[in-house]
Specification:
By secondary structure, the chain is mainly α. The protein has one domain. The chain is built from 3 helices and no strands. Helix 1 runs antiparallel to helix 2.
Length: 67
């Protein structure tokens, strides 16, 4: 039961991290550089979201340390 709960929380974290990082990249890229920037920075955000989704504890440590 506890392992299932941990898996569910990790899946929710991964989906949220990917969505938020990609959305921030797209919005910033579109605001600063237009459609090409939105595509490029959206991809960069997707890569950053993938790293945040793979290592949630390290990501939370970076946020807590005030990065």
């Amino acid at each position: 039961m506890l392992k299932t709960l941990g898996t569910v929380v990790h899946v929710i974290w991964a989906v949220c991290a990917l969505a938020i990082c990609t959305a921030v990249g797209v919005i910033y890229g579109f605001h600063r550089h237009g459609w090409i920037g939105a595509i490029a920075l959206g991809f960069v955000g997707l890569c950053a979201g993938t790293l945040a989704a793979a290592c949630p504890l390290e990501c939370l440590e970076l946020l807590a340390s005030g990065l």
